[in-house]
Amino acid sequence: xxxxxxxxxxxxxxxxxxxxxxxSVVPGLVHRYPDRVLMVLTDICSMLCRxxxxxxxxxxxxxxxxxxxxxxxxxxxxxxxxxxxxxxxGGDPLTLSTERLEEIISQIRAIEHVEIIRLGTRFPVVLPxxxxxxxxxxxxxxxxxxxxxxxxxxxxxxPEAAMAADxxxxxxxxxxxQCVLLRGINDxxxxxxxxxxxxxxxxxxxxxxxxxxxxxxxEHLRTxxxxxxxxxxxxxxxxxxxxxxxxxxDLVQGGGKVPLQANYVLSHTEDELLxxxxxxxxxxxxxxxxxxxxxxxxxxxxxxxxxxxxxVIV
Length: 314
Fold this sequence. Notes:
With about 325 residues, this protein is of the alpha/beta class.
């Protein structure tokens, strides 16, 4: 829900905290990482998340990229063969009709060097009825398509959301979750463990736990970075690795995502590492040395007369 703190603390934070405008190669297409691009098709969304990193777009009202703008995006992707991954986002792209989405996805899929298409959407969480048979049948034709959604608390995992995730998986669309760490909402180990366990029960992989971005009006929702590190430390080893997301800070000025975790390496030399495990116990771990140029690897089949004499010889 909106809070007066969004205004009273509004001087803190940035309108474009991730500096997406700087990396926009054509309107709506962000090319920050070498092999992938982010396609922002609309600012219309099923939710107005108070922690939204694109709150700056709300002042412009609802809009959808024009056909000419989309063509410019396609032209750029076609001309840059290093792009193998296209992320379709917004707003929320699932606010578009299934027919329009198919037009967009089919044209992206027609680009030979694009290997993966991803959809970023909150619809499985907040309007799971949108994930219907028509949509899933359409998506199944253009795989591999991955879908990233956004559950923030276990209370959002409803029977309807579970059915939406199941329909997507049966259509061959894997589902990942990107959670945002929010003060007073999900900033405890217990809350995050319940969320991650709940996600696995509905076959959704906990993918990222995001430090809340420095968007204007979000300071009251942001936690110290140490909170996220402690949560990951409390999950690691105490539950399945499948239930442990990667905690990341998305840097200002377009610096990209940086993963953070507790420090398990106490010391590191050429010969040995001193490591701390999840229980706090300390172990020595021998660090294998580099092979000298005079050493040659020999397989068992190359050692005539003895199939068991595989190894390294001078």
